[in-house]
Amino acid sequence: MKKYYLQISLLTVAALGIRPVMAQSPRSAIAKADALFGQQEYFAAAQLYEQCYTGKALSDKHYAAPFSVKKIRRKSAAKKYNNADLAFKVAESYRQCFHYQLAADWYARAIAENSHQPQLQYWYGVTLRATGHPEEANAALTKFRTGLPDTDLYKQAAAAELDNISFAATQAAHEDIRTAILHVAGDSLTAISALSWKDNNHVIFTGVSPDGAVFGNKLYEAVLQDGKLTAVTPLGIASEGAQLAAGSYTPDGRTIYFTRWEMVDSKKQAAIYSTTLADGKWSVPEKAPAAINAPGYNAMQPFVTADGKKLLFASDRPGGAGKYDIWIADLNGTNVAGAAVNAGTNVNTAGDEVTPFYDQEAQVLYFSSDGRPGMGGLDVYSSAGPLSDLRVAVNVGMPVNSIKHDSYFTLRPGSGGKEATLSSDRNSDCCLGIVFLQFPPEPPKVITETPVVAVTPPPPVVQEKKDTSWFIHFDFDKSILKPEAMTILDELAKILKEDNALKAEIFGHTDGKGSDDYNNKLADQRAQICMQYLLKQGIAAERISGKSFGKHQLLKEESGKDDAAAREMNRRVECRVFSSH
After folding, report:
1. Are both 134 and 271 inside the same structural domain?
2. What is the spatial distance between Cα 332 and Cα 330, in angstroms, rounded to a whole number?
3. Is 248 inside a domain boundary?
């Protein structure tokens, strides 16, 4: 799967500092397109593949970045593609640079050309979902899954996308949350993302701009004023040709941790560096120690907590739950102290968890993930508690999240949690921008005086968990709530609202068919979808806890044959209510 968050702001291929591609032989164009695709220069590759498909030279409205072409290393002879394969390659190229509408159009053309590429229907469904066509996406993904074995990774990915579509259908935007797109005064940058606060007005963010013939990611300081980023100034950190992004200040504002990445043997390698302000200039960046940058693996998107004692970051290093995880390291001043610790499975999944931000005052971790049912792409999640004991993460819902990628959620200092920013491509065909969020003030609490009556307190009673359980059943290989499940959850929410002393535990289960890894993930998805439903009914996150058991707590043993009745009983979520007193 694509690691879309390494190139943090994407290359925005607007007509700035680039020249048209001249007509060339189809064989030569395919060779260049294949080389560009291999080097992850997807927009330029898309144009050349498209040229080969149409048999025409590109018009002056189509461009490829010349620096990409210059980097091509001559390889073996070009592959031979028919029209169906070329249409698929155009679609793949546009998808890889997040131009989902163009990608969907070209996948549809590849299907019309009778392409038999194995993952065609899957990626067509993904792009349909990302462009706001859930019914068509559902049909494409369902068709793709037909006949595939349960162990097929793409079948599992398609099931997750179907869960996303189902989850999104249950969401309703909070109309009282205001959203606005931040702009750079003067529009000097082609894309912006990864905003972090120095104080309640001064920020640091990642900007994409042409640097001579190439596009580069750099760090900028600015002042947020009247919905615009003003006084935009490059930080001037030495980069030696590498890309810089996602900076985070220490509390004194004199040290910045940031991501630095470059291409090595056609692969992105990302690491966390720091720089310190001395005599009005930022020092030559220093690479963080191996406790952060595990040799041979990527580390990125650092965040320094408000007290300066913790450094949070994302890494694909060993010892995590899978792919990219959130990790936590101690800081002693500006030095890393001790080994990094994984944030745990209440936060991390087999998917990707990235872009951490910790609200120290409220003790809530925010991060983005694609490993749970959500709106689609990366969604923002929250996990309450101290960093040493974080609770099960929950999706923060719309309009913070959209059907595209949403990441880098961060609260404005001094706003009491009522103002925030995030990075999203919801308002673009391909590239990230910064969204400013304003949350409504909490209604004032009405305090009424009541007479004090002296009473003799009853003897203390230790109340254990009640034997009150609800069972919610699911279809095979699904984590989608059926109408009868929603009825049960509505009743559970009503009971919780009537007694604030009650809490709920949500336990996810599967039947005995399939591997442990697959069933653990499916059980977690089932528990998550029920927890999200209760949250939408107004039940506070701290009153809900969850755990998944996979196939290891069957209600009824399944016989050696296909015991359909037993398996149907075992595919469940169990909800238990207990008193917090």
Report:
1. no
2. 7
3. yes
Written as one letter, the residue type at 384 is A
Q: Do 313 and 290 lie in a common domain? A: yes
Residue 102: give the domain boundaries: 19-169
Q: Are residues 347 and 405 in the same domain?
A: yes
pLDDT tens, 497-546?
A: 888 888 888 999 998 888 888 888 888 889 888 888 888 888 888 888 88
Contact present, 114 and 84 (Cβ < 8 Å): yes
Quote the CA–CA distance of 537 and 162 in Å, as a whole number. 23
Q: How many domains does the chain have?
A: 3
164 and 244 share one domain = no
Contacts of 190 (CB under 8 A, 6+ apart): 12, 14, 16, 208, 209, 210, 215, 431
Do 432 and 527 belong together in one domain?
A: no
Whole-number Å distance between alpha carbons of 529 and 548: 12
Q: Do 118 and 183 have their domain in common?
A: no
Q: How many Å apart are CA 26 and CA 84, to the nearest integer? A: 15
Q: How far apart are CA 304 and CA 315, in angstroms?
A: 15
What pLDDT, in 10s, does the model give residues 258-314?
A: 999 887 776 788 999 999 998 889 999 999 999 999 999 999 999 999 999 999 999
H-helix segments, 386-456: none
DSSP 219-264: EEEEEEETTEEEEEEE-----TT-EEEEEEE-TTSSEEEEEEEEEE
Reported as type and span, the H/E element at residue 203 is strand 202-211
Strand order in the sheet with 502-508: 468-473, 572-579, 502-508, 544-548
Q: Which residues pair with 328 in a beta bridge?
A: 312, 341
Q: Is residue 550 part of a domain?
A: yes
Choosing from 147, 169, 191, the residue where a domain stops is 169
- Whole-prediction pTM: 0.68
